[in-house]
What we know:
The chain is mainly alpha-helical. It has one domain (3-189, 205-406): Growth Hormone, Chain: A, CATH 1.20.1250.20. Helix content is 82%, strand content 0%. The protein has 15 helices and no strands. Helix 10 (223-251) runs antiparallel to helix 15 (381-401), helix 11 packs antiparallel against helix 12 (286-305) and helix 14 runs antiparallel to helix 15. The longest helix is centred in the last third of the chain and has 32 residues, at 312-343.
Amino acid sequence: MTERAARLRHNPGFRRIWLASTISDFGTSITAVALGVLIVSDLGGTATDVGLVRGASVTPYLAIGLFVGVLADRVRRKPLLVGTDLGRAVVLAGIPLVAAIGALTVPLLAGLMVVFGALSVLSFAAQQSFVPRLVPRQLLPRANARLEQSTAAAQTTGPLLGGGLVAAIGAPLAILVDAASYALSGLLVAATSVNDPRPQPATRSVLADLREGARWVYRHRTLRPLALSTHTWFLFNAVATTAYVPYALRELGIGAGGLGATLALTGAGALLGSFASEALSRRIGIAATVAASRVLEAGGFAVVAAAGGAGTTSAVVIAAAGQLLYGLGFGAEGPIEMSYRQAVTPDRLQGRMNATMRSLNRAAVVVGAPLGGFFADAVGLRPALWLGSAGLAAVGVQLAASRFRTAHHDDQPPPA
């Protein structure tokens, strides 16, 4: 065992956060299947409805995302993580409750997702700024890879479990499992020991802090092209992923079980990609790893689009292969991109940097998810997948040609 691996393995704070993240990731993977089936099959929704509900969950980023970054830099981050986990558990538990009395509708579900999304905004701003306080800078790529591996493992088995749960107990009750996972995650975070000092009282206005965070991201030589590229990636990814659920259920006819199986291959690919990410980025560089991964993700959706017209069994196999390729790219780029952002940003700006980038990313989803639904309903589900694939490929090529190509593992943040 290397010294670096041993240090990470014996970091009790990180181990507890890792476990909490893994548990909630499994619940989220179940809901990814259950929510789509709930909208399309239980509520008789369209691709547009799927896009609107997905967009609703990220709409709060438009309203409060940037302000949350200021908040994460002004308060202790651990209590923020605990409160948002428990809050999301309550919101998700409300879905089966409303469904049980026959009052669940697509608009009401979208409203619940707005509340859920608002809590997620708070949580992610704190979480992505929390990991650098748990592990030293040189271990960030490995720590983020471990978190990505847990997410990928959950994406591999979670959809299969989700498909089985939906078939056995129905979509609303399957979502209740995710509620329980958030509750347990909150309790684990609460029990984590970490140096989480209360920041110094603010001496400037919120708007001044907002401007400082935005300037840091969009004037930084390498963060700026990465941020702009990632915003565009989220737009086209939302188009493709929104079209995929109704495409799989209606055009391919693979059912909830087949949908879960194909999504599980996304997780399997992400798991493999995350194991290779650190070594790959050290061999070919950060920029080449991220750019090539995005082109690979585009190829995955192109394979999925090619599954149309095949028999059910063949469609499952082809769609699963496409999702595997997509997952490989996603798993390879995620830990490297996040670690680089964290490494080159001073601690006092971590919350604002993460919230700025995440807010604009989710704003792209707010546009891309309904756009994907509208485009799919108007032109076709398959053309929507091709549109998403072409956009992802273009984003990868553009990033490789930008100033981000000079990004290096040893880039340092400026003095505090």
